[in-house]
Amino acid sequence: MSSPTALPPDLGAYAARHGLTVSGARPRLPEYARRLWSRRHFVTAFATARLTSQYSEAKLGQLWQVLTPLLNAAVYYVIFGVLMNTKDGVADYLPFLVTGVFVWSFTQSTLMAGARSVSGNLGLVRALHFPRAALPVSYALLQLQQLLVSLGVLAAVLVCCGQFPRPSWLLVVPAFGLQALFSTGLALVLARLTARTPDLAQLLPFLLRTWMYASGVMWSTAHVLKDGSVPDAVRLLLECNPAAVYLDLARFALIDSYGAAGLPPHVWALAVGWALVAGIGGFVYFWQAEERYGRG
């Protein structure tokens, strides 16, 4: 009976000689981006499959993806618009509110899905070798697909409220593109954080709800700031709040009275800046922990 073959003493040199690499090893950033791009078909297919299965057990199916923001808008209209009278001084308040709810729902759902994209797919992460960033990017793409469906419903609501299509509606394309890049970057950050500490996902809904209330979804930031009584530090935070910036862009594009008032010149610059900072920074931050995803 022959003795088993002895392993070479230098396993690293042996692996390099035969082209073997560590599963889940972190390549250089340009190579990582190239590998992620090469998996773009997997990203698209994964997002589409998740979208198809997400509401498969609900009787109304994917109709819930538009019913949910509509129901939220109805509740917010009663509570904030009627009972708290935040509609006072805001022209076209119903289109203003519905647009805000739909736009905010996109960012909120992208962050919630991205936060669980790695921690909720550990079996896939441990079984296959692929760029882990494909998971949060797939979930962000899923939410973007849902947004495109929801835009049809939003357009119908706006028309019913007397807001008819005009050339400025085309501005929603770059606006939502920048918002998608910003939200995907934050989703990558949250995916890394919750992969290490899953309990952070339980805290996220409270943080997002606070962010929503401070972003002017149900009230007009411009209306609050116009009297000059708000401290300069608070004014700066409200004006630079990325969620409020993307809300302003959508409302400027879709609502006549909002567009007639004019968009402050800093809004597009902030929208581009936030998108680049979050998108690039989030990608680099996620890549730095590539080797640690899926480990116990």
Average pLDDT figure: 85
Strand content: under 5%
User: Would you tell me the structural class of the helices and strands?
Assistant: mainly alpha
Q: Percentage of helical residues? A: 55-70%
Instruction: Show unreliable segments.
Output: 1-7
General form? globular
Rg over alpha carbons: 23 Å
User: Span between N and C termini?
Assistant: 39 Å
Structure description:
With 296 residues, the chain is an all-alpha fold. Helix content is 68%, strand content 0%. It has helices at residues 11-17, 29-38, 40-54, 64-83, 93-115, 122-127, 134-160, 172-196, 200-213, 221-225, 232-240, 242-254, 256-261, 266-287. The longest helix is centred in the middle third of the chain and has 27 residues, at 134-160. The chain is globular.
Helix and strand arrangement:
Layout: H1 11-17, H2 29-38, H3 40-54, H4 64-83, H5 93-115, H6 122-127, H7 134-160, H8 172-196, H9 200-213, H10 221-225, H11 232-240, H12 242-254, H13 256-261, H14 266-287
List keywords for this structure.
0% strand; disordered N terminus; 296 residues; single chain
Structure in a nutshell:
The chain has 296 residues and is mostly helical. The chain is built from 14 helices and no strands.
